[in-house]
Amino acid sequence: MAKKNDVKDTGFPGIKQRISNGKYVVTLDLGRQWRPNPKTGEMQLKQVKTTRTVSTLKEAKALQGKNNKEKKHKTVTGTTRKVPFSAVLDEYTKYYRNDWSDSYAMQKSAQAKRMKAFFGNRDVREIDTLDIEKFFKWCKEKQPGFPHELGENSIQKIKTHLADLWKFMKKNQSKYGVRENVVLDADYGEIEKYQATILTAEQVNYMLQFAINNEKDYSIFAMIGLPVLTGLRRGEVCGIRWGNIDYDNRRIDVEYQRCQISTGSIIKVPKGGKDEGKSREEKRQRYAALPNCLVTLLDYVKEQQEEYLQRKVTPDDYVYMTKTNLVNNYLPHPGKVSRYFSEFQKRMNKIRKKAQLDPIPTIRLHDLRHTFISLCLNGGINQFHVAANCGHNFSGRGSTTTISTYWHDDNNRDDIIEFIDNMITARLVIPDMSV
């Protein structure tokens, strides 16, 4: 850009002449364009101008005339009419909202918040596949207002949301001017898939024994015991209430789960189920085994909860509640459960290191579910009973009509209960800390 004291007016707006070399500097107005805010990372509409240098006044006037002609053409043809992304997203949401369950709508709302933060009111016709890929990359990093980056599963869901949005716009081309679904060819980029780590029976017993001997907050027994002894998912661990524990029939009614949604949580039916379903099968509600060893652990949990609450627990009280949650009367955030498990593993392996023992593999909380399933199947337990216990179906690849259509779960978990109780050799007795 030419310095102010190095140019002089030519009498033509937007054209100046350099004193030093006699060349002409032409300022071209490119209109309002979307640019990222360097502080917040959000896309904002800004007036964009650029300059070009030519040798003669004739070239300068021609260059400026060409730019003005292009601007006029856009105005006449209507291509300057902006179709804001945020407005289209709101119209899409309004159109389909009645077909969504409340929990699905909350998930969509959380995704829309990220989309609007990145695309804002940008014209949807200017968004191409590369922009979509930039958005995915943006989602994989911590951003202002979004402290947690998205993983592979979340990005796949948000891509589906965007693809549906562009499909919606293609159905009304006269209104939105979109003739191509730019989302379909967008690549996620390099997203590392997490490989599950399976613990051995010995490692499971050590983990339970360590918790019994060292942890003062007995909620850890529910956090570990429910997934590794019954195969529950994290959301299901957070969603189990005392009324779901059926001691007489030795089973757990997996009725609902509490899932993370942005900075909060929602209550919904188990994974794969329909919130608006009319039967347990449609809602994917099931019964999981209740081994005697888990009953022992849950008794400790209940006793401590009643001590903190200074009353008896009710059927509506949640099983997994930390001391902090109970004292301050709020539910644990599902996302923090994984963090608590990670901190527990660090404490456990720190003790093992002092004892010059090899560390127990660092795993995800969900790997305890993998461990339960693997131990059961490798131990010869009927695969249909294990699948029914864990909420899996047989409608996918490799399934036969006999299994997927004609086999029905009889809710018998006796084999699983016997296997798990025989596997657990840890001494599940709380030590007297006063001795």
Any chance you could write out the topology, listing elements then pairs?
Layout: E1 7-9, E2 15-18, E3 24-36, E4 43-54, H1 57-77, H2 85-96, H3 102-119, H4 129-139, H5 152-170, H6 173-176, H7 201-214, H8 219-230, H9 234-239, E5 245-246, E6 251-254, E7 257-261, E8 264-268, H10 280-283, E9 286-289, H11 292-309, H12 323-328, H13 334-354, H14 366-378, H15 383-390, H16 401-406, H17 414-423
Antiparallel strand pairs: 1-2, 2-3, 3-4, 5-6, 6-9, 7-8
Helix pairs in contact: 2-3, 7-8, 8-11, 8-14
CATH-defined fold name of the largest domain: hpI Integrase, Chain A
Q: Number of helical segments? A: 17
Q: Order of strands side by side in the largest beta sheet?
A: 1-2-3-4
* Mean pLDDT reading: 87
Q: Whole-number radius of gyration?
A: 30 Å
* Biggest sheet architecture: 4 strands, antiparallel
Quaternary state reads: single chain
Beta-strand content: 5-15%
What's the architecture of the largest domain in CATH terms? Orthogonal Bundle
Low-confidence stretches: 76-80
By CATH reckoning, the class of the largest domain would read: Mainly Alpha
